[in-house]
Amino acid sequence: MKIHFLGGAGTVTGSKTLVECDELSILIDCGLFQGVKALRELNRVPLPYLPKDIDFVILTHGHLDHCGWLPKLVNEGFEGKIFCTAPTKEITKLILLDSAKIQEEEAEKANKEYYSKHNPALPLYTVEEANQVFPLIRIVDKDIDVVLSETISFSFFYASHILGACSISLQVEGKTLVFSGDVGQDDDVLLFPPIKPKKADYVFLESTYGNRLHKGNDPLFDLELLINNTYNNGGNVIIPSFAVERVQTVMFLLWQLKKEDRIPNIPYIIDTPMGINVLHVFQENRNWHKLNYEECVEMSKMFTLISDYQDTIVAIYDNQPKSCHCS
Predict the structure, then answer these.
(1) Which end of the chain, N or C, is less packed with Cβ atoms under 10 Å?
(2) Which pTM does this prediction carry?
(3) pLDDT digits over 161-198, tens only?
(4) Distance of alpha carbon 186 from alpha carbon 193, whole angstroms
(5) Crossing angle of helices 273-284/246-259, nearest 10°?
(6) Of 285, 231, 220, 283, nearest to 257 (Cα)?
(7) In angstroms, what CA-CA distances link 274 with 5, 111, 137, 318?
(8) Is 157 strand, coil or helix?
(9) What is the DSSP string of 296-323?
(10) Distance (Å, rounded) from C-alpha 130 to C-alpha 96?
C-alpha cells in the first residue's frame, strides 16, 4: 500500500489523499487549492497519478477545499464512483456550480480587460463540466459498511463541522485507516458532537486549527451586545460569513435572542443566495442536526431572504437600522 498526499499537506486547502494498493486506487477528497496565487496555480497542475486510473473518490464533506477539484478530475479522465452522504451531495452541487460560475465570470472579465497573461483566459472549469460530476455521485449513509472489493471496504461516521460531514474508516489490506476530514466542535449549536473513531492502525488528521484554543465566550451575549449597541447608535449590523451552514448557525443564534426579547424588532436580512439554498438541505436532512421541521420553519420566518441584486441595493440604501447577514 502507498499513501500519496496530493494536497492538504503543507497548506490547508486542496485536500486530496490517494490510497494506492494492488486492487484499487482510492482518492479521499478532491479539493481546490485556495488563497495566494502560488496556491491557486496548483489547480492547473495535472495530478501525478492519472485520473482514469483512480477507481473511487470518497468525500468527507462538501466544502470547496475538499470537493472543488472534482470537475477537473472528471474532465481529465476519472470515470469511477464518488461516494458521499446525502447532505454532502446537495452541498457539493451548490458549491461546484457556484465555483464554476465564478470561474467563468473571472475568465470573461480577464478577457475583456486584458489583464491575463493567457490569451484567451480560460476558466479552470465550466458549469457544463461541473454538471458532469453529479451522475457519478453515489449516496451512502453514515455507519454503513460499503464493500469496494474482497479486501477493501469503508464506512462514514459523524464528524459535525457542516451538514453531512463525516470522517472515514477505510479497511485496506487488513489495516484500518481513519481520515478525519474536518471535525466540528462538541458544543456546536446546531450539529451533534463528532463521533470519535473506535479503532485505527493509522489516523490521517486534518489539523488546520490544531494549535489554537477556542475562546470560552458566549456567542449569544456577544451578538446581543453588538446588535443593541449598534442599534442604539442608529447603525446597521453586517455579518459576513461562509455561506454553507454558518448562515444557519447565525440565524439560529439571532432567533434565540429574538425569542427572548434580547434584541430589537428590526429587519433581519439574509443576503446570500447559496446560504438560502442550503436552508432546504437543512429541512430535508433533519436527522443530521438538532432542529426539527417546525423549528426550521419558525426560525426562517424571522428573516427576509434576499437573492436578487436589486433587492440588495434597496436594503443597502434603506436608512432603517437592520441586521444583514451576507457572504
Answers:
(1) N
(2) 0.91
(3) 999 999 999 999 999 999 999 999 899 999 999 999 99
(4) 4
(5) 80
(6) 220
(7) 30, 27, 21, 23
(8) strand
(9) HHHHHHTSEEE-SHHHHHHHHT--S--E
(10) 6
| Residue among 58, 79, 63, 56 at smallest CA distance from 31 | 63
- pLDDT-derived band of residue 233, with 50, 70 and 90 as boundaries? very high
Q: Which residues, in sequence order, are CB contacts of 226 under 8 Å at separation 6+?
A: 237
| Residue with cell string 451538514 | 163
pLDDT tens for 276-285 read 777 788 889 9
Query: Cell numbers of 155, please?
Result: 464506512
Task: Using the Cα atoms of residue 253, residue 256, residue 259 and residue 264 in order, give the sign of their dihedral.
Answer: negative
Q: Which amino acid belongs to residue 199?
A: K
Residues 182/206, Cβ–Cβ less than 8 Å = yes
Residue corresponding to grid cell 421541521:
293
The dihedral region occupied by 159, where left means phi > 0, alpha psi between -120 and 50, and beta the remainder, is alpha
Bridging pattern class, strands 152-158 and 175-179: unpaired
Cα–Cα–Cα angle for 55, 56, 61, rounded to 5 degrees: 160
